[in-house]
Amino acid sequence: MLSIIIPTLNEEEYIPRLLESIKKQSFTDYEIIVADAASTDKTLEIAQSHWCRIVEGGLPGRARNNGARVAQGEFLLFLDADVILPADFLQKALDEFKKKKLDIASFPMDLYPSQPFSQFSSNFYNHYIIFMQNVQPCAAVGILVKKDMFEKLHGFDETIKLAEDYDLARRAVKSGTFAILRSVKLLTSNRRFVRDGWVVMIGKLMLAELHSVFIGPIRSDIFRYRFNHYKDKDNV
What we know:
Blueprint: E1 2-8, H1 15-23, E2 30-36, H2 43-49, E3 53-56, H3 60-70, E4 75-79, E5 83-84, H4 89-99, E6 104-106, E7 109-112, H5 118-132, E8 142-146, H6 147-152, H7 164-172, E9 178-180, E10 186-189, H8 191-196, H9 198-214
């Protein structure tokens, strides 16, 4: 079984698209766990209507860990709430994961809807993560991992403020195998770039990567990360 774990906070606009795309998959041996951080919109109502299991959330690291604790699957798939799975994504991803005998993996992405810098940004990111996969693994937006490997790593480090997903992958490769899966891509909302500005967001991501590589995990609030501030301009 595959356990799909989704952290949420007021995701009524995006999570229906993700859940519907999961429902349309050819692979059906899965459960969906929504780790919700006290949403005040219709997120929980939508999740319940799709037969999702609801657990307490929080910041993404904590939410994912809470979801993993109740997961029944042999494999865990962590997804951001604003992604969409293309047709046959789950089957293709699992087939490649097993064929390559991986312990953990992440995915290339395409940003939607199309914006002036969306194609450039996604292409740059995809080439970078593929180039770096054997040097400094990058895992974001979606992560597929064996549950026993996840438990061996004691899950996400909840003390990290930003890029806790990269940290998980970089700890995993010390005792396991990692790759970027090439048979699939995640469709990912460009809301982060639109809300914060394309130049600002790209610069922030580059600085965060340099910090992670040369200094270490980001445990301070230097990048002022906030979980799901895209509807509230005052929550920045």
